Amino acid sequence: MEAPGRIWFGYIAAVGIAVIGLITLDPLAFGLAVAVLVATVLGERYRGRQIALAAAAQDPDLPELVARWARGWAYARGCPRPATVPGGVRVEVGQPGRQVEWVATDAADTLAGLVDSARATPEAWLSVVTESPAGVRPWLVEAGLVTDDREEALMSIDLADHASRELPEGYRAEVERDGGVITVTVRAGEAAAADGTIAVIGTDAVADRIRTDPDHRRRGLGGAVMSLLVAAAREAGAGHGLLVASEMGEPLYAGLGWHAEARLVTARSPAPDTSVESRRGQREL
After folding, report:
1. Is 163 helix (H, G, I), strand (E, B) or coil?
2. Residue 173 pairs with which residues in a beta bridge?
3. Hey, which of 22, 97, 155, 223 would disulfide with 258, CB 3.0 to 4.6 Å?
4. Exposed, middle or buried: residue 171 (CB in 10 Å: 0-12, 13-18, 19+)?
5. Average pLDDT of span 153-182
6. What is the C-alpha to C-alpha distance for residues 228 and 196, in angstroms, rounded to an integer?
7. HSE on the CB side for 76, CA within 13 Å?
8. Gyration radius from the chain CA atoms
9. pLDDT value for 44
10. CA pair distance 71, 139, nearest whole angstrom
């Protein structure tokens, strides 16, 4: 609040000096009032610009978040580094039914070309990050791509704000590191009860494949896995978290402090057939 106070003081000072000029008929007072007013306006514009730049640095635009998430997601899964394309990125996934995936925003000037590419490419996916899934999904269907009514969420967090969840009694955790890829496995005896991965690239940490065995759900294992992953990522130098959450997983992450940046609508080329259940198994967040 300090800067706005100084701005108002400048306006008040300019008016006060101008009033004195009117009373004394002193032209120097009028000149000083104009100078103070000009300096105040210029100062206000400068401070507004600095605030906008600072906000932009802390709140990157959506295309940048998409590229950063895709880079970390590909790294976590052992895929080649995504290639930048107009409007988004292209990932060589190399999975049956999902050989290639484009991840892009809903910018109309670039999305049309990516829709055409996905439709013409066998075993291709197109994931569109948007604030209006209802507006994007019909367009994808009309273009001949296969989609469904479900959607995911692109989420982010300052890792310093991540809530901590303790591992329940009767479980133990194993943490493995392979370069910047960190894997946590929670075991009940020798059996895996839950696991997850997080990939650290620079100051970004991208979580992926957070899974809990059905026999061990509703015991807080998902939150414990995320807490362990985030702690390890912070030790590795990460400060900002990104992930794509399924409808089932989104409440878990929201409870840990993550917030949704946008929604994700995914479509695929008409053939070969890839079931919705298979899709969710491949990206279980």
Report:
1. coil
2. 186
3. 155
4. middle
5. 97
6. 10
7. 29
8. 26
9. 63
10. 27
Read off the tokens for 6: 């100084």
Report pLDDT for 209: 96
Q: Which helix (H) or strand (E) holds 30?
A: helix 27-58
3-state class (DSSP) for residue 77: coil
Please give the structure tokens belonging to residue 160: 């310093």
CB 203 within 8 A of CB 219: no
Annotate 170-195 with DSSP letters as a single string. T-EEEEEEETTEEEEEEEETTEEEEE
Distance CA 285, CA 245 (A): 5
Run of H or E residues at 139: helix 133-142
Judge whether 216 and 188 are in contact, CB under 8 Å: yes
Phi-psi region of 190 (alpha: psi -120 to 50; beta: other; left: phi over 0): alpha
Sign of CA dihedral 22, 28, 31, 37: negative
CA-based nearest residue to 249, from 198, 215, 283: 283
pLDDT in tens, 26-80: 777 667 767 766 676 666 665 555 444 343 334 458 999 999 999 999 999 999 9
Contact 152, 245 (CB under 8 A): yes
Q: What is the pTM of this model?
A: 0.74
pLDDT digits (tens, 9 = 90+) for 177-236: 999 999 999 999 999 999 999 999 999 999 999 999 999 999 999 999 999 999 999 999
Residue 201 makes CB contacts below 8 A (sequence gap 6+) with: 68, 71, 72, 75, 180
Q: How far apart (Å, rounded) are the C-alpha atoms in residues 198 and 7?
A: 46
